[in-house]
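Late entry, evening session. Most of the bench is empty. Finally got around to the prediction I had been postponing all week. Sequence below, unchanged from the version circulated by S.P.
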Amino acid sequence: MRRLSGGYTIVEVMIFLAISGIIFAAAATLFQGQQGKTQFEQGMRDLASKIQQYVDQVGSSEFNGGGQYNCAISNSTGRAELSAGNANTGTNQGCVFLGRAIQVLPGQPNVYIYSVLGSQYDSNGDTVTSYAGALPEPAFNTGADISEEYDTTWGKVLSSKVTYTSGSTVNSTLVSFYNSLQDGYQKSGAAGGPSITARGYNYNDNSLSSIKSTALKSCLEEQSANGVDCTNTPTINNWSACFASTGSSQTAILSVTSTPAGITTDANFTSCS
Protein backbone atom coordinates (compact mmCIF):
# COMPACT_ATOMS: atom_id res chain seq x y z
CA MET A 1 0.00 0.00 0.00
CA ARG A 2 1.29 3.39 -0.96
CA ARG A 3 2.61 5.49 1.92
CA LEU A 4 2.71 9.24 2.12
CA SER A 5 5.98 11.07 2.67
CA GLY A 6 5.42 11.02 6.47
CA GLY A 7 5.18 7.26 6.53
CA TYR A 8 1.36 6.84 6.81
CA THR A 9 -0.87 5.23 4.26
CA ILE A 10 -3.83 7.09 2.79
CA VAL A 11 -6.19 4.70 4.58
CA GLU A 12 -4.52 5.40 7.93
CA VAL A 13 -4.81 9.15 7.37
CA MET A 14 -8.48 8.79 6.47
CA ILE A 15 -9.14 6.71 9.58
CA PHE A 16 -7.34 9.30 11.71
CA LEU A 17 -9.37 12.13 10.20
CA ALA A 18 -12.61 10.20 10.67
CA ILE A 19 -11.85 9.49 14.33
CA SER A 20 -10.78 13.10 14.88
CA GLY A 21 -14.04 14.27 13.34
CA ILE A 22 -16.07 12.03 15.62
CA ILE A 23 -14.17 13.24 18.70
CA PHE A 24 -14.60 16.87 17.64
CA ALA A 25 -18.32 16.41 17.02
CA ALA A 26 -18.77 14.72 20.40
CA ALA A 27 -16.82 17.48 22.14
CA ALA A 28 -18.87 20.17 20.37
CA THR A 29 -22.13 18.45 21.36
CA LEU A 30 -20.94 18.12 24.95
CA PHE A 31 -19.91 21.79 25.01
CA GLN A 32 -23.21 22.95 23.54
CA GLY A 33 -25.14 20.82 26.02
CA GLN A 34 -23.13 22.21 28.93
CA GLN A 35 -23.56 25.74 27.61
CA GLY A 36 -27.32 25.18 27.26
CA LYS A 37 -27.46 23.77 30.80
CA THR A 38 -25.61 26.79 32.19
CA GLN A 39 -27.81 29.26 30.29
CA PHE A 40 -30.98 27.51 31.46
CA GLU A 41 -29.96 27.41 35.11
CA GLN A 42 -28.90 31.06 35.09
CA GLY A 43 -32.03 32.04 33.17
CA MET A 44 -34.32 30.32 35.68
CA ARG A 45 -32.57 32.00 38.60
CA ASP A 46 -32.83 35.39 36.89
CA LEU A 47 -36.54 34.82 36.21
CA ALA A 48 -37.19 33.83 39.82
CA SER A 49 -35.38 36.97 40.97
CA LYS A 50 -37.39 39.12 38.55
CA ILE A 51 -40.72 37.69 39.68
CA GLN A 52 -39.72 38.31 43.29
CA GLN A 53 -38.88 41.89 42.34
CA TYR A 54 -42.32 42.35 40.80
CA VAL A 55 -43.95 41.00 43.96
CA ASP A 56 -41.83 43.24 46.19
CA GLN A 57 -42.87 46.26 44.12
CA VAL A 58 -46.49 45.37 44.82
CA GLY A 59 -45.69 45.51 48.52
CA SER A 60 -44.15 48.96 48.15
CA SER A 61 -46.95 50.21 45.85
CA GLU A 62 -44.51 50.93 43.03
CA PHE A 63 -44.73 50.18 39.33
CA ASN A 64 -42.35 50.94 36.50
CA GLY A 65 -42.93 54.20 34.67
CA GLY A 66 -45.73 55.31 36.98
CA GLY A 67 -44.48 58.88 37.04
CA GLN A 68 -44.72 59.18 33.26
CA TYR A 69 -48.50 58.76 33.08
CA ASN A 70 -51.72 60.26 34.37
CA CYS A 71 -54.34 58.14 36.06
CA ALA A 72 -57.93 59.27 36.50
CA ILE A 73 -61.21 57.60 37.40
CA SER A 74 -63.62 57.35 34.48
CA ASN A 75 -66.97 59.04 35.08
CA SER A 76 -68.71 56.41 32.95
CA THR A 77 -67.18 53.19 34.26
CA GLY A 78 -65.75 54.19 37.64
CA ARG A 79 -62.53 52.42 36.68
CA ALA A 80 -58.99 53.76 36.58
CA GLU A 81 -57.83 54.98 33.18
CA LEU A 82 -54.18 55.60 32.31
CA SER A 83 -53.14 58.19 29.76
CA ALA A 84 -49.88 59.62 28.45
CA GLY A 85 -48.29 62.15 30.78
CA ASN A 86 -48.35 65.92 30.52
CA ALA A 87 -47.64 68.90 32.73
CA ASN A 88 -49.94 67.49 35.42
CA THR A 89 -48.28 64.09 35.53
CA GLY A 90 -48.14 62.70 39.04
CA THR A 91 -51.50 63.91 40.32
CA ASN A 92 -53.28 60.55 39.73
CA GLN A 93 -56.18 61.56 41.93
CA GLY A 94 -58.18 58.65 43.26
CA CYS A 95 -56.06 56.00 41.53
CA VAL A 96 -54.09 53.29 43.31
CA PHE A 97 -51.67 50.63 42.14
CA LEU A 98 -53.36 47.38 43.11
CA GLY A 99 -50.69 44.95 41.98
CA ARG A 100 -49.49 42.80 39.12
CA ALA A 101 -50.84 39.94 37.03
CA ILE A 102 -48.57 37.42 35.31
CA GLN A 103 -49.48 35.40 32.23
CA VAL A 104 -47.63 32.44 30.70
CA LEU A 105 -48.42 30.47 27.55
CA PRO A 106 -47.48 26.77 27.42
CA GLY A 107 -45.31 26.18 24.37
CA GLN A 108 -44.14 29.80 24.31
CA PRO A 109 -40.93 31.29 25.76
CA ASN A 110 -42.07 34.64 27.18
CA VAL A 111 -43.69 35.77 30.43
CA TYR A 112 -46.14 38.69 30.35
CA ILE A 113 -46.54 41.08 33.28
CA TYR A 114 -49.48 43.47 33.65
CA SER A 115 -49.83 46.33 36.14
CA VAL A 116 -53.35 46.61 37.55
CA LEU A 117 -54.77 49.91 38.79
CA GLY A 118 -57.90 50.69 40.76
CA SER A 119 -60.06 53.31 42.38
CA GLN A 120 -59.13 54.41 45.89
CA TYR A 121 -62.67 55.50 46.74
CA ASP A 122 -66.12 54.04 46.18
CA SER A 123 -69.14 55.90 44.82
CA ASN A 124 -69.84 57.31 48.29
CA GLY A 125 -66.34 58.73 48.61
CA ASP A 126 -65.27 56.14 51.17
CA THR A 127 -61.90 54.37 50.93
CA VAL A 128 -62.30 50.95 49.34
CA THR A 129 -61.52 47.94 51.51
CA SER A 130 -61.83 45.13 48.96
CA TYR A 131 -60.24 44.26 45.66
CA ALA A 132 -63.59 43.98 43.88
CA GLY A 133 -64.63 47.35 45.30
CA ALA A 134 -61.54 48.97 43.80
CA LEU A 135 -62.78 48.01 40.30
CA PRO A 136 -59.43 46.61 39.05
CA GLU A 137 -58.28 47.65 35.59
CA PRO A 138 -55.18 46.35 33.73
CA ALA A 139 -53.01 49.20 32.46
CA PHE A 140 -52.48 48.35 28.81
CA ASN A 141 -54.54 51.04 27.11
CA THR A 142 -53.43 52.24 23.68
CA GLY A 143 -50.94 55.05 24.22
CA ALA A 144 -50.52 54.21 27.89
CA ASP A 145 -49.41 50.59 27.95
CA ILE A 146 -47.17 49.77 30.92
CA SER A 147 -47.31 45.99 30.53
CA GLU A 148 -43.98 44.18 30.29
CA GLU A 149 -42.65 41.14 28.46
CA TYR A 150 -39.87 39.03 29.97
CA ASP A 151 -37.92 37.15 27.30
CA THR A 152 -36.95 33.57 28.17
CA THR A 153 -35.18 32.47 24.99
CA TRP A 154 -33.24 29.93 27.06
CA GLY A 155 -36.44 27.98 27.75
CA LYS A 156 -40.17 27.66 27.18
CA VAL A 157 -43.19 27.05 29.37
CA LEU A 158 -44.57 23.50 29.50
CA SER A 159 -47.36 23.94 32.04
CA SER A 160 -48.71 26.28 34.70
CA LYS A 161 -50.67 25.24 37.80
CA VAL A 162 -52.00 26.86 40.95
CA THR A 163 -52.82 25.37 44.33
CA TYR A 164 -55.80 27.03 45.98
CA THR A 165 -55.99 27.61 49.71
CA SER A 166 -58.58 24.82 49.72
CA GLY A 167 -55.79 22.42 48.70
CA SER A 168 -56.97 21.63 45.15
CA THR A 169 -54.55 22.06 42.22
CA VAL A 170 -55.74 23.17 38.75
CA ASN A 171 -54.25 24.42 35.51
CA SER A 172 -54.10 28.21 35.27
CA THR A 173 -52.06 30.44 32.97
CA LEU A 174 -52.93 33.69 34.76
CA VAL A 175 -52.02 34.62 38.35
CA SER A 176 -51.86 37.89 40.24
CA PHE A 177 -50.35 39.46 43.33
CA TYR A 178 -52.28 42.32 44.98
CA ASN A 179 -52.19 44.51 48.03
CA SER A 180 -54.78 43.40 50.57
CA LEU A 181 -57.22 46.30 50.70
CA GLN A 182 -58.33 46.45 54.29
CA ASP A 183 -58.43 49.12 56.98
CA GLY A 184 -57.85 52.07 54.70
CA TYR A 185 -56.21 50.63 51.57
CA GLN A 186 -53.36 48.56 53.05
CA LYS A 187 -53.27 45.97 55.80
CA SER A 188 -50.01 45.31 57.60
CA GLY A 189 -48.51 41.88 57.11
CA ALA A 190 -46.40 39.79 59.46
CA ALA A 191 -43.29 41.82 58.68
CA GLY A 192 -45.04 45.17 59.19
CA GLY A 193 -45.53 45.93 55.50
CA PRO A 194 -48.58 45.65 53.31
CA SER A 195 -50.00 42.14 53.04
CA ILE A 196 -50.01 40.65 49.52
CA THR A 197 -52.73 38.34 48.26
CA ALA A 198 -52.00 35.79 45.51
CA ARG A 199 -54.82 34.80 43.15
CA GLY A 200 -55.19 32.10 40.50
CA TYR A 201 -57.66 32.74 37.68
CA ASN A 202 -59.94 30.38 35.81
CA TYR A 203 -58.08 31.23 32.62
CA ASN A 204 -56.28 28.80 30.30
CA ASP A 205 -56.19 30.40 26.85
CA ASN A 206 -52.78 29.35 25.45
CA SER A 207 -52.96 31.27 22.17
CA LEU A 208 -50.82 34.28 21.38
CA SER A 209 -54.01 36.20 20.64
CA SER A 210 -54.87 36.01 24.35
CA ILE A 211 -52.09 38.47 25.23
CA LYS A 212 -53.77 41.72 26.31
CA SER A 213 -57.01 40.42 24.85
CA THR A 214 -60.53 41.58 25.71
CA ALA A 215 -61.16 38.29 27.51
CA LEU A 216 -57.98 38.64 29.58
CA LYS A 217 -58.90 42.25 30.41
CA SER A 218 -62.35 41.19 31.57
CA CYS A 219 -60.82 38.39 33.62
CA LEU A 220 -58.49 40.81 35.42
CA GLU A 221 -61.54 43.00 36.06
CA GLU A 222 -63.07 39.90 37.70
CA GLN A 223 -65.83 39.66 35.14
CA SER A 224 -66.91 36.98 32.67
CA ALA A 225 -65.94 36.98 28.99
CA ASN A 226 -65.90 34.44 26.15
CA GLY A 227 -67.23 31.72 28.39
CA VAL A 228 -64.59 32.32 31.07
CA ASP A 229 -65.88 33.14 34.55
CA CYS A 230 -63.32 35.11 36.56
CA THR A 231 -65.69 36.45 39.20
CA ASN A 232 -64.69 35.81 42.81
CA THR A 233 -61.21 34.62 41.85
CA PRO A 234 -59.90 32.41 44.69
CA THR A 235 -56.66 32.98 46.55
CA ILE A 236 -53.79 30.53 46.14
CA ASN A 237 -50.97 29.11 48.23
CA ASN A 238 -48.69 28.33 45.31
CA TRP A 239 -48.10 28.92 41.62
CA SER A 240 -45.87 26.44 39.78
CA ALA A 241 -44.76 26.92 36.18
CA CYS A 242 -42.74 24.17 34.47
CA PHE A 243 -40.03 25.32 32.04
CA ALA A 244 -37.99 23.25 29.58
CA SER A 245 -34.53 24.24 28.36
CA THR A 246 -34.11 25.01 24.66
CA GLY A 247 -30.41 24.09 24.77
CA SER A 248 -30.38 20.98 26.98
CA SER A 249 -32.68 18.26 28.29
CA GLN A 250 -33.29 20.02 31.60
CA THR A 251 -36.60 21.06 33.11
CA ALA A 252 -37.26 23.22 36.16
CA ILE A 253 -40.17 24.58 38.17
CA LEU A 254 -40.65 28.25 38.94
CA SER A 255 -42.43 28.10 42.30
CA VAL A 256 -44.06 31.13 43.93
CA THR A 257 -45.38 30.37 47.41
CA SER A 258 -47.64 32.55 49.54
CA THR A 259 -47.42 32.25 53.34
CA PRO A 260 -48.48 34.50 56.25
CA ALA A 261 -44.86 35.67 56.42
CA GLY A 262 -44.82 36.79 52.78
CA ILE A 263 -44.30 35.53 49.24
CA THR A 264 -41.17 33.66 48.18
CA THR A 265 -39.98 32.67 44.71
CA ASP A 266 -37.67 29.74 43.89
CA ALA A 267 -36.29 27.91 40.86
CA ASN A 268 -36.29 24.16 41.48
CA PHE A 269 -34.31 22.08 38.95
CA THR A 270 -36.35 18.93 38.85
CA SER A 271 -38.36 16.83 36.44
CA CYS A 272 -41.68 18.33 35.34
CA SER A 273 -43.97 18.37 32.33
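Two things to note before I forget:
The chain has one domain: 10-268.
The longest helix spans residues 10-59.
Will write this up properly tomorrow.
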